[in-house]
Design a protein that fits this description.
- This protein is α+β, with helices and mostly antiparallel strands.
- It is 29% helix and 21% strand.
- Helix 8 packs parallel to helix 13 and helix 12 packs antiparallel against helix 13.
Length: 404
């Protein structure tokens, strides 16, 4: 029977609950809003499968970095690339699988803008899986459905965070030639509870500032990585609200640069990440995936010809299956090979753990009763004098070329 003694020991991948033959494990939120397995001991038969599939207890080895190749990539289809978080590689991988009658799994927004894993079988439905969603998705049966499809001989592309891919591979228990497992480089996953409360407060704020109407505004669209406003490098968080006023439909659109959006600020400062993210079991490309994809931050320094501020992906093939899938995209991708070491400064999460913010415990102590979450996040992420001086010094050294 699986038991979580420390929150850092569970990444919430759901493999244990998905594998349990008695369905006696359910994923329940803790006080911080993260899902953890809870076992109904009266139904447990002590088969040990839950422990066997845990990617924290059974970790994949990291590859030899000297043998790893990396690529800067841009989708040649400009509208698809602009609709994607970075270079549009996911859409091409998905298109290849769907063209073969396969199924694509990824994260989408639910009716209440929570995030859930789901699958699509048609190109027309791919848009719901495209783009970043900055909270941990709920797997909700996707591992079992993927396994059923694989056993039936269908091609499957499964995209998730590194711990989700590690959980999927442990859940499956054996290799499948018709599976393409892709992990998306992850900074960490913010609390779903914080995410939900933050955007609920934002909706209330929109209505408090609006003129009275027949019905209040409701959130109708959320986009975390919009490039239309300021480009890829300074992407915006776009939220759109709709309401009815006297029989007339009204819309309100907010576009905030990520540097000024408080939810993103707290996320990027590691203020409310899942505890296991600070001890990630799948760091150093050790998710067992076929491909790792990421934003190629820093591409302008090493490959300026690949940077037009519309999004550039970093693609790292890690298996023969991944290399074949990547090679199949050659006609549709603008690609240049890049040393992995050049990509690491802009993507440190490939190798390093993220450290929790010094005010993480304080945030969760005040979070429940905070009526103004943006103000709380702003206050707790404000840099100390020492941090400001260090940042200013590094900026000066960077300008004169002493640090990169």
């Amino acid at each position: 029977m699986i038991q979580i003694k420390r929150p850092e020991e569970c990444c919430g991948c759901t493999a244990c609950a998905e594998k349990c033959p008695k369905r006696c494990i359910s994923m329940q939120p803790d006080a911080e809003g993260f899902l953890y397995p809870v076992v109904d001991a009266s139904l447990c038969i002590e088969c040990g499968l839950c422990e066997k599939v845990c990617p924290v207890l059974h970790r994949y080895g990291a590859p030899e970095l000297a043998s790893v190749r990396a690529y800067a990539c841009c989708n040649r289809d400009e509208p698809v690339r602009m609709a994607s978080s970075s270079g549009g590689v996911f859409s091409l991988l998905a298109g290849e699988v769907l063209d073969k009658g396969g199924v694509v799994f990824g994260a989408r927004f639910d009716h209440d803008f929570s995030v859930v894993h789901d699958s699509v079988e048609e190109i027309a439905g791919l848009g719901i899986l495209r783009g970043s969603k900055y909270t941990q998705s709920r797997i909700e049966g996707s591992f079992r459905r993927a396994e059923s499809l694989l056993k039936a001989g269908r091609e499957v592309l499964f995209v998730g965070t590194s711990c989700q891919i590690a959980g999927l591979k442990r859940f499956l228990g054996r290799p499948y030639a018709n599976l393409l497992a892709v992990d998306v480089l992850c900074h960490g996953v913010p609390s779903p509870k914080v995410y939900a409360q933050y955007f609920a407060q934002q909706t209330r704020r929109v209505n408090a500032e609006a003129q009275p109407a027949t019905e209040p505004y409701r959130l109708a669209h959320l986009e975390f990585r919009n490039k239309e406003e300021r480009g890829w490098g300074r992407y915006c968080i776009v939220s759109e609200y709709v309401r009815t006023n006297g029989g007339e439909s009204q819309q309100l659109r907010l576009a905030v640069p990520f540097t000024h959006e408080m939810f993103m600020r707290g996320f990027l400062h590691n203020l409310y990440l899942r505890p296991s993210c600070h001890e990630c079991p799948a760091r150093r490309l050790a998710a067992g995936s076929d491909l790792t994809i990421a934003d190629y931050w820093g591409v302008e320094e090493h490959h300026p010809e690949m940077n037009d501020n519309k999004g550039t992906s970093l693609v790292i093939p890690l298996s023969d299956r991944g290399r074949r899938a990547f090679a199949a995209l050659s006609v549709s991708l603008k690609t240049i090979e890049t040393p992995l070491q050049e990509a690491l400064p802009g993507n440190p999460c490939l190798m390093r753990l993220v450290r929790p913010h010094r005010n993480r415990a304080r945030f969760f102590a005040e979070f429940e009763h905070a009526e103004d979450l943006p103000a709380l996040i702003s206050r707790l992420t404000r840099r100390t004098l020492r941090e400001r001086m260090r940042r200013k010094l590094r900026g000066g050294l960077r300008r004169i070329g002493l640090v990169r």
